[in-house]
Write a structure and sequence with these properties.
Blueprint: H1 2-30, E1 34-39, H2 43-52, H3 54-57, H4 66-74, H5 76-84, E2 93-101, E3 107-115, E4 122-130, H6 137-140, H7 144-147, H8 156-172, E5 179-188, E6 193-201, E7 207-214, H9 220-223, H10 237-249, E8 253-260, E9 270-279, E10 283-292, E11 296-308, E12 313-322, E13 327-339, E14 344-358, E15 369-382, E16 386-388, E17 391-405, H11 408-413, H12 418-428, H13 430-436, E18 439-454, E19 463-473, E20 483-496, E21 500-513, E22 515-518, E23 521-524, E24 559-572, E25 575-587, E26 596-607, E27 610-619, E28 628-633
Parallel strand pairs: 1-3, 4-6, 7-9
Antiparallel strand pairs: 2-3, 5-6, 8-9, 10-11, 11-12, 12-13, 13-14, 14-15, 15-17, 16-17, 17-18, 18-19, 19-20, 20-21, 21-24, 22-23, 24-25, 25-26, 26-27, 27-28
Length: 637
């Protein structure tokens, strides 16, 4: 027993002594180093070859053995050849080399030099259709998508993409059951050419069947105005998506689901549709509190009735107050849709605007104040949108009844006692006093034309916007004044390389109206609501909002010229910097046009709700402040 125990003890000691040697031996075996070099290829072809090479994929394995390295090297050439074939290279010249540099300690070196050679060209594409759609012209035209491969090198990726597009386009023509009966690529290595054979069974062309509208808020006759899908028309999946978008964009529905049913049997199977629509709540209430560089602190409330009755009528009631000049605005609008797909509608509106004007606003040391109050009642007809190439033209015609009053006499002499004021009135005359304290009543018909195109609704890289408004009033139509006016504004945006864009903006205005001079001040015989002022975030930056107007006027000018050029450059994803130069002014006579210039820099952020801008504007001429900061959110137009 003692002998056996001693023998076992010695065996254990021996095993313990040999174990480190065994571990070192295994570690040495598992630590084979391998470096793989592939020369002569680049981009997608190189990536595909490396992904296909087992020796490259396993070069960092923890348990590489010499036997495995030799085995993988032996099949590397065949793997490289197969990796080149999808790109059209069938006769590459490949040299391989495998070295084991144990003495230098670099381990195994596997090197593969590849000359891809000449890609194999496609010399023949045999595309044929059978079935009911085989002779239709629109089906025959589909061959053009694959004809692009003719004469080019065989690229199996393009072939697969073209094949998928071909069957997708065939189904988009209403052949919902279209399928390939035959699809193959044949390579002739002796002639070194490739041929493509495709045969498609079209099946019958499907059409829309009955369309069921599932909702309970609107009359089906009204919702039918939104439908581009009609029974008997060719079934197209793309039109289902467009129809869903049009109903969602109506503003009535939170969810729109279109479910095709089982096709009915027949020469042209009819596919019934069920359109389910979940309406928004009828009422929406919003409150806003904020601060704007142009208006100061402000509050706003509005109530929107999304739908009233069963024919899509809707209205909005809103009110807002702002710190700057204690501005107050209230609106009521009622819209009656006529052709919602093309934007045609009637709109009835009421609006009130009022703001303070006191002696400090006209650079006097003392005086009084007045309230400029404007009331409008408007009826507008938005005509259907017309499309011209990429442009959409929205025209409108309308008429407004305008009433406005204010008292400049009170601003100038409100600090004086009544007796002194009466003496001044007697001295300047009744007509001059009525000029200082006008009461305008006007019937103002107008036309508007908006031409617009944009490559993106939120962030425009290429777009144009032109807006022309014509309006006026006549004593023959019940007004107590005569004037006519033209307003023109434009935006033009051009991309510059991949990260930049140029923006050009202009605002022009012209008014033909009588002017009267009282106490050396010019007063235009038009409502202040229609006079022009410049300055602000969308005018001449560097100057306060509406602080630029003729030096001989108090309320505004008859004409306007403003232009702006800006360059914007992206520095980080969704973040850009901009530099701008603005110029212009409002004026009463062209000979007295006194241009003001402003320049500055800005920061842009492409937020989910539109472009957010912070601009730092510096006036280049006399101004009340050394600089202005502007914050705006939303697309340019």
């Amino acid at each position: 027993m003692n002998v056996d125990r001693n023998h076992a003890f010695r065996s254990t000691l021996l095993s313990m002594a040999l174990w480190p040697c065994l571990v070192a031996s295994i570690s040495s075996f598992a630590a084979e180093q391998l470096q793989v070099t592939l020369n002569g290829l680049e981009d997608d072809i190189l990536n595909n070859a490396l992904a296909s090479l087992e020796i490259a994929r396993r070069s960092k394995d923890a348990e590489l053995s010499s036997a495995n390295i030799i085995r993988m090297h032996g099949k590397a050439e065949a793997e490289i050849r197969r990796a080149l074939e999808p790109f059209g290279y069938y006769q590459p010249v490949i040299t391989t080399d495998l070295q084991n540099s144990e003495e230098s300690g670099n381990g195994w070196q596997a090197t593969y030099n590849v000359d891809a050679g000449t890609p194999i060209p496609v010399d023949n594409i045999a595309l044929s259709f059978i079935g009911p759609g085989a002779d239709h012209e629109d089906v025959k035209m589909l061959a053009a998508s694959l004809a692009l491969l003719q004469g080019q090198r065989l690229d199996h990726r393009r072939y697969e993409t073209g094949k998928r597009k071909l069957i997708s386009d065939t189904r988009e023509l209403g052949y919902l059951n279209a399928q390939f009966l035959e699809h193959r690529v044949e390579v002739d290595l002796q002639k070194y050419t490739a041929g493509i054979t495709l045969k498609i069974e079209t099946g019958p062309r499907s059409v829309y069947g009955d369309i069921e509208l599932q909702q309970d808020k609107f009359s089906n006759d009204y919702l039918a105005r939104y439908l581009i899908l009609q029974p008997g028309k060719t079934f197209k999946h793309s039109e289902l998506a467009r129809q869903r978008h049009l109903l969602s964009a109506s503003g009535y529905f939170s969810e729109v689901i279109i479910e095709p049913g089982e096709p009915m049997q027949g020469e042209n199977p009819q596919v019934p549709l069920v359109i389910g629509m979940t309406p928004f709540p009828a009422n929406r209430y919003r409150g806003r509190a904020g601060w704007g560089t142009d208006t100061g602190f402000g509050l706003g409330l509005d109530w929107t009735r999304r739908y009233l009755g069963q024919r899509g009528h809707h209205f909005n009631v809103g009110a807002a107050v702002a710190e700057e000049r204690e501005r107050l605005a209230g609106d009521v609008s009622y819209t009656i849709p006529r052709n919602p797909l093309r934007g045609e509608a009637f709109e009835i509106g009421l609006r009130h605007e009022s703001k303070d004007l006191n002696f400090t606003d006209v650079d006097l040391d003392e005086g009084g104040e007045t309230r400029i109050a404007t009331n409008l009642a408007t009826l507008q007809w938005r005509l259907p949108v017309s499309n011209f190439d990429d442009f959409g033209l929205q025209s409108s015609a309308g008429v407004s009844i305008v009433g406005e009053s204010y008292d400049i006499f009170e601003v100038l002499f409100g600090n004086l006692p009544s007796s002194a004021q009466n003496a001044i009135i007697e001295n300047i005359g009744t007509e001059a006093y009525e000029t200082l304290a006008p009461e305008f009543d006007a019937v103002v018909p107008g036309l508007s034309f908006k031409l617009k195109r944009a490559d993106d609704p939120l962030y425009i890289r290429r777009g144009d916007y032109l807006n022309l408004e014509l309006l006026g009033a006549s004593e023959d139509l019940g007004s107590n004044i005569d004037f006519w006016q033209a307003r023109f504004s434009s935006w033009n945006i051009w991309p510059v390389a991949e990260r930049g864009r140029f923006l050009f903006r202009s605002n022009l205005g012209y008014t033909d109206a009588e002017s009267r001079s009282v106490l050396g001040v010019n007063f235009n015989q038009i409502p202040e609501y229609y006079e022009f002022r410049a300055g602000g975030a969308r005018s001449v930056r560097g100057y306060g909002w509406e602080t630029l107007f003729p030096s001989d006027a108090i309320t505004g000018g008859k004409h306007l010229i403003v232009a702006s050029i800006e360059y914007e450059h992206e520095v980080f994803p969704d973040w850009s910097v901009a530099a701008f130069l603005d110029g212009g002014n409002a004026f009463n006579k062209f000979a007295d046009f006194n241009e003001k210039l402003g320049t500055g820099i800005g920061i842009r952020w492409r937020s989910p709700v539109g472009l957010a801008r912070i601009d730092f504007g510096i006036p280049m001429n006399d101004a009340d402040d050394a600089f202005q900061i502007y914050i705006t959110v939303g697309p340019e137009f």
